[in-house]
Every structure is written in structure tokens, then in C-alpha cells.
Design goal:
The protein is an all-alpha fold. It has one domain (2-85). The protein is built from 3 helices and no strands. It has helices spanning 2-27, 40-57, 64-85. The model has no long low-confidence stretch (mean pLDDT 91).
């Protein structure tokens, strides 16, 4: 199970990087790709990537690092989903 979450985390990073590149190319009108004309797709990729990374980094230890990094990823994910639902894209 740990390897599957690790794999999904890195797939999410790859899709997020690809989405970022395509969104920037479309936004600055170098080329046009239909679903990348706003930041909506990028926001969903960031949301899922941060969820996978928070699950990946979660460990049951008493160290500050093992609690702080997953919480930071969840804050970013929930901040992103807040902006999606508020239609800021």
C-alpha cells in the first residue's frame, strides 16, 4: 500500500508539472489547449497531489516534522479546493 501511495504521489507531481506548463503556454497565448485556458485544471491537480503527498508523509511518530508537513499539505489542498468552490480561476 505504501508503494502505491508513493507512486500516486509522483504521478500527481508529474501531472501537475505538465498541467502547469500547458496552462502557462495557453494563458500567454503561445499555443491553445482547450482545457488549460484557465487555472481550473491546475487547481484540481494541485489538490490531488497535495492529498497524496500528505498521506505519503503521514507517519505515527511524535516528532514535529512528521506532523507539520502533512498538515501543511492538507492546508494547501483545502485552500485550493476553497478557491475552486469560490470560482476563483
Amino acid at each position: 500500500m505504501r508503494r502505491a501511495i508513493n507512486f500516486l504521489g509522483w504521478i500527481g507531481v508529474s501531472f501537475t508539472i505538465l498541467t502547469l506548463i500547458l496552462t502557462l503556454l495557453t494563458t500567454y497565448q503561445f499555443m491553445y489547449v482547450k482545457y488549460f485556458d484557465s487555472y481550473y485544471t491546475l487547481q484540481w491537480c494541485i489538490f490531488f497531489t497535495m492529498i497524496f503527498w500528505s498521506i505519503k508523509m503521514f507517519e505515527i511518530n511524535n516528532t514535529l516534522r512528521s506532523k507539520l508537513y502533512p498538515i501543511a499539505c492538507m492546508v494547501i489542498a483545502f485552500g485550493t479546493i476553497f478557491f475552486i468552490f469560490m470560482k476563483v480561476y
